[in-house]
Design goal:
Elements (H helix, E strand, L loop, with lengths): L5 E2 L2 H7 L3 E6 L3 H11 L3 E4 L2 H4 L8 E5 L6 H11 L5 E7 L4 H9 L4 E4 L4 H13 L30 E6 L7 H15 L4 E5 L7 H4 L8 H6 L6 H7 L1 E3 L4 E4 L13 H14 L2 E5 L6 H9 L2 E7 L2 H16 L7 E6 L9 H8 L3 E5 L4 H8 L3 H4 L4 H14 L11
The structure holds adenosine-5'-diphosphate and magnesium ion.
Length: about 400
């Protein structure tokens, strides 16, 4: 068995000052050779995971498991052998991406799962992503929970210590998701570090649809790995909206999965996102349950979205009273009036008096909103000059700008 060749990526060279070894493990020779071929000359092939172990010497190593390794017993071995090694990261290249394989692999500490038929570039990118987080040069093991601790400090320009903004309303259809999506896109465009949009409408989340994304991973994958979730694993589960660079953690694909997700799980995820993002935006369902309350508590800002009709205002008032009763600090609540120009004979001053708050933002009603929802292109991108896009940009600025502390709720 050949000793390792080394592979230098710009990122590993920069962050580790060193090398990355890549091992392909696949017992079926033809498949292994094909993978070695695709990944280039710096890759070393092995029949079994046991053969790789003696070769590990503290140099950062990414192990690429081939399709024959996607069974419970091999993945169990991988987990036992490698769980305490901050110098080794594992990705699995499977024949197909089923939920079962995905859960099995991620539970065993595998950092990413790709398909053999997929793009070679995606496999290479996954290897590089995993490689960046590995320790190099036989450093002492990181404390539990930080093992293989993901993105190195300063690895992402401007990332880390994110501000968390939850978009909430006790009324369905008030424009939460539209607002969360467009706000997050604006923040992603303006931010140096990563911006992540989390779809916490766990039963009926439609963020992915609004952005025309076909999610591979969802909140469910993050929760099923919550015990060993770190920045790197969570980052590998996020989808990317290519036009804006926004990262997305989509809602479960089926409503039934919502039951598996507890408030503590969601809070853990947000806390990990905080570590490497500049801003986290959370879309929520139209009710207050323990998950939503946990997220409200965890957030720096809560945007209360109200449509301009009486049922909307009534529900927002009830929502506000509930939040007050639960001792939510009023200074983090901000009122956003949606469809604020519509000819519905409700004047803004009247609404503000009823709710005893002043509006932080007024979002006009505009036909480009439903048009852009149906096209799956956020209106801040498709119609950047529209009034509605301008109002969302102003809102984004008020969240990150110097006046972020002003114009809050009076308490
Ligand atoms: N400012 C607006 N102008 C026109 N239509 C809007 C506006 N805000 C929301 N809508 C429409 O209302 C629908 C519901 O919005 P959505 O964001 O899905 O609500 P929620 O997430 O609160 O249930 C969207 O499909 C969108 O077309
Ligand atoms: Mg919604």
């Amino acid at each position: 068995m050949a000793a390792f060749n080394f592979y230098e990526t710009e990122e590993t060279a920069m962050s580790q000052g060193g090398q990355l070894a890549i091992a392909v493990v696949e017992p079926v020779a033809g498949v292994r050779l094909n993978l070695e071929d695709r990944l280039g000359p710096s890759v070393t092939g092995f029949d079994t995971i046991e053969q790789v172990l003696p070769q590990l010497n503290g140099t950062a190593t990414v192990i690429v498991l081939g399709p024959s390794c996607s069974d419970a017993s091999i993945l169990g071995t991988v987990e036992r052998m490698l769980s305490s090694r901050p110098d080794v990261g594992v990705v699995l290249v499977a024949d197909e991406l089923s939920t079962t394989i995905l859960q099995l692999a991620l539970r065993s500490g595998v950092k990413d799962v790709l398909t053999l038929q997929g793009d070679t570039l995606q496999i290479v990118e996954a290897i590089e992503r995993v490689g960046v987080g590995l320790s190099n040069g036989a450093q002492p093991a990181a404390p539990a929970g930080q093992a293989m601790g993901g993105i190195p400090a300063g690895g992402d320009a401007g990332g880390g210590n994110a501000r968390v903004t939850t978009v909430f309303s006790t009324k369905g259809g008030s424009g939460k998701s539209v607002l969360a999506v467009n706000l997050a896109v604006v923040l992603a465009e303006q931010s140096d570090g990563p911006v992540c949009l989390v779809d916490a409408d766990l039963q009926f989340g439609d963020v992915a649809v609004m952005m025309k994304l076909a999610p591979v991973h969802t909140v469910v994958d993050a929760v099923s790995n919550i015990d060993h979730l770190d920045t790197q694993l969570l980052e590998s589960l996020l989808a990317t909206h290519e036009p804006s660079g926004l990262r997305i953690l989509p809602a479960p694909l089926e409503p039934a999965f919502a039951d598996q997700i507890g408030a503590n799980d969601m809070i853990t995820m947000i806390q990990i996102l905080r570590r490497f993002c500049s801003h986290v935006v959370i879309d929520t369902p139209a009710y207050l349950n323990d998950v939503v309350l946990g997220l409200v508590e965890e957030s720096d800002d809560v945007l209360l979205v109200a449509g301009m009709d009486i049922p909307n205002i009534k529900n927002v008032k009830i929502g506000l009273q509930t939040l007050r009763l639960l001792n939510t600090p009023m200074e983090k609540l901000r009122l956003v009036l949606n469809r604020a120009n519509s000819k519905v004979k409700l004047d803004i001053g009247g609404v503000e008096r009823t709710l005893q708050v002043s509006a932080e933002a007024l979002i006009p009603s505009d036909v480009v909103v439903p048009q852009s929802v149906n096209k799956g292109v956020p209106f801040v991108l498709s119609h950047p000059k529209s009034g509605v896009a301008k109002s969302v940009r102003a809102l984004a600025e008020s969240l990150v700008g110097a006046d972020a502390e002003s114009r809050r709720f009076h308490g």
